[in-house]
Design brief:
It is built from ten helices and nine strands. The chain has about 325 residues and is an alpha+beta fold. Helices cover about 40% and strands about 20% of the residues. The protein is elongated, with a radius of gyration of 26 Å. The longest helix has about 45 residues.
Length: about 325
């Protein structure tokens, strides 16, 4: 009698393990499909829609640029950046902090790729020193092409571009490339550098740079292009660029955009906010824990197989 009951229990366990094994197999297939979908959707989130692409400025515009139509899409659009021979060709967003557009696109819709962000402490590009942030995405999207300036040949033969803003069109020239700490306040402590201290930051970049032009000279307006470093999470790939106004726009150059530069302590706080936001973008871009779920499913499968082997031995 006991032997019969034990045999029935073993049969039930055997069926249960078979069901679990089948579910694990189906779970692995489903997870693989989701991971593929997730990877594609993350890349696609960096794509621009036709509504904004038709308003994209070009060199053929003769220097004319208006933000009016772009601002009808989103009032937080403050400009556009294009770097020749790269995929950097995006609208620039600015909010009341540096984290709002970390995972929002130009339409304020969720996008793992986020947007190109102008530091909220800047007054458009009227300051001596401006900072732009962008994610380091796959397939050379967003600001990942900043890292290409580490290559000597690419750096030597490229680096021209345009920054289109409310006050006019700027010629952009990349002068140096460096990898810096995400906590480097000489780079990200904007308030200390926005008031005529460009010579100091140029000298600092020259000391840190992996690539630097020999003919930098004095720079009236600096813009920093900052993105995450793929190899070291606490580091940033940074390109230092010079801006030269070549065409006046809709705003007067002196004081048209009314925004006070904050105190030194506020600048440090805002810099840390950006550091924390950028440091977490890989995690936010992969909000679904694919690896953890996959390992859990595999563990359940291995345990199930082990139990089945034990049950077979007991028969």
């Amino acid at each position: 009698m006991l032997k019969k009951i034990l045999s029935q229990v073993i049969s039930v366990i055997d069926v249960a393990i078979t069901i679990i094994a089948s579910l694990v197999f189906l779970g692995v297939i489903a997870l693989g499909g989701f991971a593929l979908y997730d990877a594609v959707s993350v890349v696609d989130s960096a794509n621009l829609g036709d509504d904004v692409l038709r308003l994209r400025p070009s060199r053929d515009d003769g220097g004319d640029f208006s933000l009016k139509d772009l601002k009808q899409i989103n009032g937080d659009i403050v400009g556009w950046i294009k770097v020749d021979n790269t995929n950097i060709d995006y609208p620039i967003l600015q909010s009341t902090d540096n984290s709002e557009y970390l995972n929002l696109d130009y339409k304020k819709e969720y996008a793992a790729a986020g947007s190109i962000i102008l530091d909220y402490r800047n007054r458009s590009f009227l300051d001596d020193y401006s900072i732009l942030y962008g994610h380091h995405m796959s397939k050379n999207r967003m600001f990942s092409d900043v890292a290409r300036f580490e290559d000597a040949d690419f750096f030597e033969n490229n680096g021209e571009g345009r920054v289109y803003a409310e006050e006019g069109v700027y010629r952009l020239k990349i002068l140096a490339y460096a990898e810096v700490s995400a906590f480097d306040l000489k780079v990200y402590g904007l308030s200390a550098l926005a008031k005529g201290e460009n010579d100091a930051i140029v000298q600092y970049f020259q000391s840190k740079a992996k690539r630097v032009r020999s003919d930098i000279g004095a720079v009236d307006k600096i813009v920093i292009l900052s993105t995450c470093d793929d190899s070291v999470k606490a580091n940033r790939d940074v390109a230092l660029g010079a801006l030269e106004l070549i065409s006046d726009g809709e705003a007067e150059i002196d004081g048209a955009i009314d925004k006070d530069i904050e105190s030194e302590s506020d600048g440090d706080s805002a810099s840390n906010q950006v550091v924390e936001a950028e440091s977490s973008h890989e995690k936010e871009a992969r909000a679904f824990p694919v690896k953890k779920v996959a390992l859990t499913i595999m563990f359940i499968g291995v345990v199930g197989i082990f139990i089945k082997l034990v049950v077979d031995k007991l028969r």
